């Protein structure tokens, strides 16, 4: 019977020496641990012999670092588990955030139902239906005296009739003129709005008494009402003398769709006006420091958009949110202490022609256009058609734009 030769590992070292060396390394590790904890170290009494033996083994056989190989495997496994844990935590965080917002929305709807619907209904007994899921809601703030402004918008950039319904079903875009009621509900002004709404079906009525100095309150009620009625990714406020390119607005918002708390507009920081009798006078100017100070950054009031979480926040806390004299300042103040991303998008505040034309030729078409000198399009009733012809994106743009 022949004598079998010892098996060798891949690097030529006999397998039994590998096993012996690993066992020796294990016991050596135990001794090191014992020394660290001040346990007696038997190897210390024969240090020179151990050193010579180790040198002899190292000289006769190549070194196999078992501990290093095992450590590398353990490290890779740990990194994999850390990555998996991180993914699970992120998923849970998103789920919790979503549940929190659903809870806040439910609470807001409950409070609205208890306090009385914020919407004016003909019967006064209609209840809020289940909210429809949409892309964005655009509320055009208007007044009783602005019938001609509304008509100029209907004839230019805002779809009407069946096209308005199609925009809702195919694109998830809701557009409404936003108005409250007069100081004497049911009067001639309210009846005129009801007749106009019967014709066009494009109003959102608020439980709010109309008045120029009540714009902050109207804006607050608008967002609360819109959140209660539609489950949208974004809610937009627009003045009724601004030109809008809906396709560009949709493309702009789509870039920020994954962000939970965004506030989009043309950010500014105007002076706090302490002088009485001037336009935009701030009665609470003293809260902003010394005379001559500026406001915090906030979006200009002609047009801005906020994400669902922020609109829900306004709805839930509307009874305790402070309102300043200027509506755009009020809105900015509601977010200044929150974890909100302010996005300064200058496509939302282009000038009228030739400014909008130059930007379109440069590859930066405008989402909204108006004249800064008038805080809207100057003489918008007469000029909206001209602005639409020169600044508009084309009637088919909204239908060919993917969001």
From TrEMBL:
It is an enzyme of class 2 (transferase). The chain crosses the membrane at residues 17-37. Pathway: Protein modification; protein glycosylation. It is found in: Golgi apparatus membrane. The keyword Phosphoprotein does not apply. Keywords: Glycosyltransferase, Golgi apparatus, Manganese, Membrane, Signal-anchor, Transferase, Transmembrane, Transmembrane helix. GO terms for cellular component: Golgi membrane. Its cofactor is Mn(2+). Its EC number is 2.4.1.-. One of its GO terms (molecular function) is galactosyltransferase activity. It is a single-pass type II membrane protein. InterPro entries: DUF4094 (IPR025298), Glyco_trans_31 (IPR002659). Its main location: Golgi. Residues 15-108 form the DUF4094 domain. The keyword Manganese applies. Pfam families: DUF4094, Galactosyl_T. It comes from the Eukaryota. Coiled coil: none annotated. PANTHER family: BETA-1,3-N-ACETYLGLUCOSAMINYLTRANSFERASE, BETA-1,6-GALACTOSYLTRANSFERASE GALT31A. Belongs to the glycosyltransferase 31 family. This is Hexosyltransferase. It comes from Populus euphratica (Euphrates poplar). The gene is LOC105135032.
């Amino acid at each position: 019977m022949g004598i079998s030769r010892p098996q060798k590992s891949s690097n030529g070292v006999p397998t039994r020496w590998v096993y012996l060396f690993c066992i020796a390394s294990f016991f050596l590790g135990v001794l090191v641990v014992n020394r660290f904890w001040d346990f007696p170290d038997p190897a210390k009494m024969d240090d020179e012999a151990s050193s010579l033996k180790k040198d002899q083994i190292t000289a006769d056989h190549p070194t196999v670092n078992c501990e290093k190989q095992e450590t590398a495997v353990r490290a890779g496994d740990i990194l994999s588990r850390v990555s998996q844990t991180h993914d699970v935590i992120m998923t849970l965080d998103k789920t919790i955030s979503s549940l929190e917002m659903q809870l806040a929305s439910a609470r807001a709807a409950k409070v609205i139902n208890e306090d009385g619907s914020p919407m004016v209904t003909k019967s006064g007994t209609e209840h809020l239906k289940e909210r429809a899921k949409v892309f964005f809601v655009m509320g055009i703030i208007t007044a009783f005296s602005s019938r001609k402004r509304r008509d100029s918008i209907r004839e230019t950039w805002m779809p009407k009739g069946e096209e308005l319904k199609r925009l809702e079903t195919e694109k998830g875009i809701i557009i409404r003129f936003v108005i409250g009621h007069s100081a004497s509900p049911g009067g001639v002004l309210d009846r005129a709005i009801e007749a106009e709404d019967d014709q066009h079906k494009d109003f959102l009525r608020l439980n709010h008494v109309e008045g120029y100095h009540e714009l902050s309150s109207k804006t607050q009620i608008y967002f609360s009402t819109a959140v209660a009625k539609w489950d949208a990714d974004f809610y937009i406020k627009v003045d009724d003398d601004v030109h809008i390119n809906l396709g560009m607005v949709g493309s702009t918002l789509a870039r920020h769709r994954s962000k939970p708390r965004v506030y989009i507009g043309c950010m500014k920081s105007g002076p706090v006006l302490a002088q009485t009798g001037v336009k935009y006078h701030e009665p609470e100017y003293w809260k902003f420091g010394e005379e001559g100070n500026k406001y915090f950054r906030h979006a200009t009031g002609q047009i801005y958009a906020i994400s669902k979480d922020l609109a829900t926040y306004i709805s839930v806390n509307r009874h305790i949110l402070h309102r300043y004299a200027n509506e755009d300042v009020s809105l900015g103040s509601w977010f200044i202490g929150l974890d909100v991303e302010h996005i300064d998008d200058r496509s939302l505040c282009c000038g009228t022609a030739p400014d909008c034309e130059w930007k379109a030729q440069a590859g930066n078409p405008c989402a909204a256009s108006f004249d800064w000198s008038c805080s809207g399009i100057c003489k918008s009733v007469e000029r909206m058609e001209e602005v639409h012809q020169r600044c508009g994106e084309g009637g088919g743009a909204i239908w060919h734009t993917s969001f």
